Amino acid sequence: xxxxxVLLMAHGTPSSMEEMPEYLRLVRGGRPPSxxxxxxxxxxxxxxxxxxxxxxxxxxQAGALRQRLGSDVPVGVGMRNWKPFIxxxxxxxxxxxxxxxxxxxxxxQFSTLSVAKYLDAATAALPAGMRLTPVRxxxxxxxxxxxxxxxxxxxxxxxxxxxxxxxxxxxxxxxKAGDGYAIEVAATSRGVAARAGIVRYHRAYQSAGRTxxxxxxxxxxxxxKYRAARGARQFxxxxxxxxxxxxxxxxxxxxxxxxTAHSSGAELRRTESLNTSPTFISMLEDLVRQNL
Length: 292
Known about the structure:
- This protein is of the alpha/beta class.
- Helix content is 46%, strand content 15%.
- It has twelve helices and eight strands.
- The protein has a four-stranded parallel beta sheet with strand order 2-1-3-4, with helices on both faces. A four-stranded parallel beta sheet has the order 6-5-7-8, with helices on both faces.
- Helix 5 (115-125) links the parallel strand 3 and strand 4 (131-134).
- The radius of gyration is 19 Å and the shape is globular.
- 45% of the residues are buried.
């Protein structure tokens, strides 16, 4: 007898400062982090209250989805780089009788460096007799676009406020190798803008890794400085590459980009993250039902 479950996957985040070195080692594929990197990440986490809400919010999203689907479709949460790990979540689903799992990485746009790695980790950890049905992208799902557009309307963009859609940067080498991530980010931005009635907007990337190789841009901070130097005084950031609050939102935008704007003589704010937006949860439900 076949029983289908759902696995929501995210990046993962340490639950305490003491866990930061081991967490960063996992993020770096087993390479120990430098003392400087550990100190920098601890600083960033301290600036947002000492911990990221990523895990708690992902669990809340799973809980909301579970209510929509009912008790017949178990929903698990697995993180690629920290607890609860993907392998542990799959083991729990298997223990409940699930032998087919719909895997949904909680990143709207497909990339070989994010979504593909979540799915690879799930495939490698599948218990015997379980098969994986992957959801590779939902960047243009109508309900995702609606959810982001709702956040824009709630923010009530001001007359001269410049709207900037952002997503996580990637190494330029990945894009040159054929990764279609930037194309999907552009498509999400266009779709959200159309639904929200935004005629003019910018697109930027944020949270580039601390490596010597180039990452795709334009970087959010550079865009803010460039536009501010040309008279822009208000920015509304819409992070369409993310589906909940975490350090890349709460530090990289709310603190770092805001400081960049202030030092350039401008103001910066952002739309509320999707988190447990009913429209976003409806999108997750639709993804599952399409694959049941």
